[in-house]
Amino acid sequence: MQEPRDGHERQGAHREDVVVLVSDRRERAERLARGIALVLPCRVVEPGAALPADRSIAFVVDLATDLAADRGSAWIMWLAERIRESGLPCLYLARGNAVQDTAAVRLLGAPTVIDPRQSAGIVPTLMRLVAEGKAREASSAKARKPGGGTPEVRVERATTLVTRLFDKAATGWPPSPEEVEEGTRIVLDTVSEVGIRTWLDLVWRHDIQVYQHSLSVAGFAAAFAAELGFSRNDRQRLAKAALLHDVGKALIPHAILNKPGPLTPDEMAVMRTHAALGADLLARESAFEPEILDVVRYHHERLDGSGYPEGLKGARIGDLVRLVAICDVHSALTERRVYRPPLPAAEAAAIMQAQAGQLDSDLLRVYRPIIFRAGNAAGGPSVLS
């Protein structure tokens, strides 16, 4: 079956803001649509149909179809990608099968899940989601303007973009190159304006664990690029690689990723797959350069051959990988973990200096001022590096 063309592509007709109700249960859909229409315009979409020409402001998904079992359906995959890429609020009406519903949630990205038997809660929940979505869009629009709004607004936007990046990766889809570029620009511009210390303070206001690590490493990379006197293009490439370096962790089981303590050897073996998983995922999108893929795959390699996944040594480790590896180690040392507090800057600097045989010693000398400029971490909880 061919993917349907978006109704949004049709021109010439007046378009209004509507809630899109996706349902394969006609009678129930009609009842639900009437309830939604009391407060918000609503359009019902049945399986195989295109999205309406009106501007969507939210999705409600109420399908008897097992989304997990029906992943082979071109229409289901097309719809799920449209929902994920839209960034719009999505209300998923669960069917009560925990395994099936979990698979559907992963496929749709990050929907709000509600029990349809509690029908009185559907419309109020939808109204709240739409209101929150409009507020986020207003904030995002402000962040996207030249100058980008306040640093707080920009960090909020960057957090949203990175959250979306990981949510999409968790479903097996590479992130949007356009959103990665926007997130990278926000990191570069904000660190340039307010400095690495303030960037970290703002990032760590958000309790989003591995996402914070990605934003912290990207911030360190932006500061490092400035210290090295890189051109704008080279700064962009380094910060983007840092932002994406841990994308493979989206595919690691949460029980391992968020374990409050050291991992067992078997768990560590699973954790170490994140580098190859992330690079393979990004390789599905031609917009990501080979140098970026190398950083994602090799950022845990070490000059003495003690790293992973391939035990590369010396000259086989590229410059961009070496730069991000330093930022990654610094971030890991100075973030608060569930089993230990963050290390002070002086202690982190000493540990990194002791790793000069593993990390590039010349680059470490250039990076050292950034360690003290960043100071002691504001950090919240994070995951293993």
- CATH class label of the largest domain: Mainly Alpha
Instruction: Characterize the main sheet.
Output: 5 strands, parallel
Total domain units: 2
Number of continuous helical runs: 15
- Alpha-carbon distance between the two ends: 43 Å
In one word, what is the shape? elongated
**Strand residue percentage:** 5-15%
Kindly report the average pLDDT value: 84
The assigned structural class equals alpha/beta
What is the level-2 CATH architecture name of the largest domain?
Orthogonal Bundle
3D structure, described in words:
By secondary structure, the chain is an alpha/beta fold. The chain folds into 2 domains: 7-137, Response regulator (Rossmann fold, 3-Layer(aba) Sandwich); 145-374, Hypothetical protein af1432 (Orthogonal Bundle), CATH 1.10.3210. The chain contains 15 helices and 5 strands. A 5-stranded parallel β-sheet has the order 2-1-3-4-5, with helices on one face. Helix 2 links the parallel strand 3 (55-62) and strand 4 (90-93). The longest helix has 27 residues, at 177-203. It is elongated and about 70 Å long. Residues 5-13 and 378-385 have low confidence and may be disordered.
